Amino acid sequence: MIAIIDYDAGNLKSVEKALAYLGERSLITRDRRQILQADKVILPGVGSFGAAMKQLRDYGLDEVIRETVKQKTPLLGICLGLQLLFESSEESPGVAGLGILQGEILRIPEGEGLKVPHIGWNSLELRNEGRLFASLEETPYVYFVHSYYLKAKDPSIVKAVAEYGVAIHASVEQDNVFACQFHPEKSGETGLMILKNFAAL
Hints:
The chain has helices spanning about 10-20, 30-35, 50-60, 60-70, 80-85, 190-200; strands at about 1-5, 25-30, 40-45, 75-80, 105, 120-125, 125, 140-145, 150, 160-165, 165-175, 175-180.
C-alpha cells in the first residue's frame, strides 16, 4: 500500500490515478497510523512553501514524515513536496522546512525568452544512477510547473538535472528519500515508469 499524504496542498487525485493505472494500491490519508504502516509514502505538493509547511505542522504531519524517514520507508516528494524536504526556501523567508535533506530552494531567475513560472516539458540529464530512472532513456522528457528550484548541497544525491536558464536539480535520492521537482504523474510513459520504479523499491 502506498500512502499519499493529504495536507490540503496537493494534486492528490492525479497521483492516485497514475498509481491505479500501474495496478498499485494507494490511499490518500493524513492518518498517522496509516502513513507509518504504508509500504511507501508520497508527499505531493502544489502551492507556496510557507502555507504548505503550516499545513503539515497543523496536522502534525511534519513529525510523521520524519518518522517515516527514520523507519526507512521509501518516501517520494513531488514538486513542492521536493522543496519541503529541505531546510528553507526563498519563497517564504524565515519558514523552516522539514530539513531532511540539505540544499537551497531559490527563485528561478528571469531571463530572455524564459518565463517564470517554468511550465512545460523539459529534458533531463541523468546522473549518479538514480533508482527512479532505471531502464529509462538517457535524456527523458518530463513535465514541470514551478517558480523555485533546488540547488542541493551534496552533488552526489542529484540524480537528474534540467536546464532552464540555470541548472535545476530536478531529482534527488538519499537512502530511502526520493524527490522530483517535475510531476511524474503528468509526464506520460516516462513518468509512469518513474512511479513504477518507486513502487517496486
